[in-house]
Amino acid sequence: MAITSLKSIISNLLKMGTNPTKSNQGTENAKSFTERQKAEVAVARRDMGEGDVPLEKIVGSVGRYHDFDGQFRLKKEHESRKFRRIKEAMEMNAVLPPVDLYKIKEEYYVLDGNHRVAAARQLQKETIAAHIIEYLPSKQTLENILYREKTNFELNTGLSNKVELTEVGQFGWLLEQIKEHQTSLEQLTATQTSLKDAAEDWYRTIYTPLVDIVKHCGLERAFPRRTLADLYVYISYHQWHKGRRERKYGGNLDELIPNSMENFRVKVMEQSEHPFPEMKQVTTAFIMISVKPELEKQLVEKLYAYEEVKEIHYVPVDFDVIAKVVLERDLLSSESEVVRQFVQEKVRRVPGVTWTQTIITLASKIKSLE
Description:
alpha/beta; about 20% strand; elongated
């Protein structure tokens, strides 16, 4: 009885052309544009023109989302004649009219051309030509405000999906920086320069080289919640627009990043490659420490275990111990910052420490012990 039942199930599955392990896949509908539009309160619209759209970003339909599954495959068991004609034309690389898409944020919905999208997905194509109308979300959330600022920046500059920021207002500041660069280029070439041409030059000769420096320094690891563009904004703002009055960097930063945006560009343009100087600098400091009675030995043993501590001595003066430390820092950190961090996180946490004072060396001459 059980064998007969199993044979019947397998026979039915084969007739349906279905794999038992995949029988439940593709049952979800494609997304509904109307539902997403209501959720985002997306009423204002703008024509984005024509362009190639990644098929993986086309997630739904305006009117026929019930006819397609979540992978934008036809739900019908048999392909229609229209669908087969479209697929055959695509296989022959025929030029078909662009599909019409509505866009909300990073998702696209088909207004006209559902079968063309489904055929392209089935043929495993990556993009499809489309005419795009974007609907802008109007809810005053941080995500929506950032999205509107980003799309405005991209429309003005042509720099699509190249800059990602996490703070409101920064896209506008970058746009002003690009306009400043546009003026500089016009003065340099004595010809008019479009904003998009200036943006492309800015991205290639200013933004990207400075971001390369940020990556080489490893700063993104120190600020995991910030993007590279966030760090670019912070450094360029304080280095080029605030005169470095509010932020003290390492002493060699001016050699690497001149305090003028256009001087930085000139330096980059003069180099065939982007050679990076050694990003790690060494700071030597002496830390004087007072400790509660009878805890001196424990303090010495604890500090001596740190790799940064090169020497440690008992001294019969107003304090108990003096330690020589050698600390590494990147070019964007000041000497006082790294020394203060070492004292607070390692020295001050040793039980019994009551007082510390540091001396940072400006220069040293050390005789060999040989």
